[in-house]
Amino acid sequence: MFIALEGIDGSGKSTQLNILKEYLEKNGRRTYLTREPSDLSIGRTIRRYLTGELKADNRVIAALFVADRLEHILDEKEGLLRKQKEGFDIISDRYYFSSYAYQSVDMPMDWIINANSVAAELLKPDIVIFIDIPPEAAMERIKAGREGTELFETKERLTETRNKYFEAFEKLKDRENVIIIDGIGTPGEVNERITNILSKLL
Q1: Closest CA to 129 of 186, 180, 85, 173
Q2: What does the alpha-carbon distance between residue 189 and residue 200 come to, in Å, rounded to a whole number?
Q3: What is d(CA 33, CA 169) in angstroms, rounded to the nearest whole number?
Q4: Which residue from 173, 60, 67, 66 is spatially nearest to 112, judged by alpha carbons?
Q5: Residues 170, 120: contact at Cβ < 8 Å?
Q6: Going by C-beta distance under 8 Å and a sequence separation of 6 or more, which residues neighbour residue 164?
Q7: What is the β-pairing status of strands 127-132 and 178-182?
Q8: From the CB of residue 191, how many other CB atoms can be counted at a distance below 10 Å?
Q9: Which has the least CB within 10 A, 38, 58, 103, 162?
Q10: Each residue's pLDDT expressed in tens, for the chain with a length of 202 residues
Q11: How far is the CA of 163 from the CAs of 7, 25, 106, 194, in angstroms?
């Protein structure tokens, strides 16, 4: 099974990733956790742009995400297709819906979707879980949990990005299995909402 966790920054994806891993392993499943940008060569470069260490036009960064996603899927040792063949369930902190939402603030969403079409054909999530919280709550969490912010972490940008997520979900509703989860509450409460959905798939 391939699960993609999505949400604006501060939504609690990383916390839920680890809780979900424990849940699946208690159900006897082998689980592989990953994230995007990936920890492979292109993904590491993208992180330098997101922190401001390197500078580039957002269209350049969008293209780098496409390349990183393909490497993430196809890498011979750590690629997602390889992990599936080895019998792992995959949980990814972000996948192509993040590109559709974050990058379409600056450029046409259809371009982003088309640029990622090869990745979508190679490996589509069995379920996309979108953890939804208001941008105001997201910014409070970000400020409380970190010393600095990344490129896309402003209230205005997160508001635009959340709107773009819902635009993408509507556009692709006939092609993708997207579940929207209320992200307000304790980690345990949010996890219960997620596992209530996943229990039907196991």
Answers
A1: 180
A2: 18
A3: 24
A4: 66
A5: no
A6: 100, 101, 102, 104, 105, 109
A7: parallel
A8: 21
A9: 58
A10: 999 999 999 899 989 999 999 999 999 999 999 999 999 999 999 999 988 899 999 889 999 999 999 999 999 999 999 999 999 999 999 999 999 999 999 899 999 999 999 999 999 999 999 999 999 998 888 877 655 555 567 889 999 999 999 999 999 999 999 999 999 999 999 999 999 999 888 7
A11: 11, 34, 13, 22
Closest of 33, 15, 31, 38 to residue 194, by C-alpha: 15
Count each helix (H run) and each strand (E run) in the chain, helices first: 10, 5
Residue position matching structure tokens 């990622």: 116
Question: What is d(CA 123, CA 59) in angstroms, rounded to the nearest whole number?
Answer: 24
Kindly list the distances between the CA atom of residue 71 and the CA atoms of 23, 38, 83, 127, 193, in Å, as whole numbers in the listed order: 28, 9, 13, 21, 32
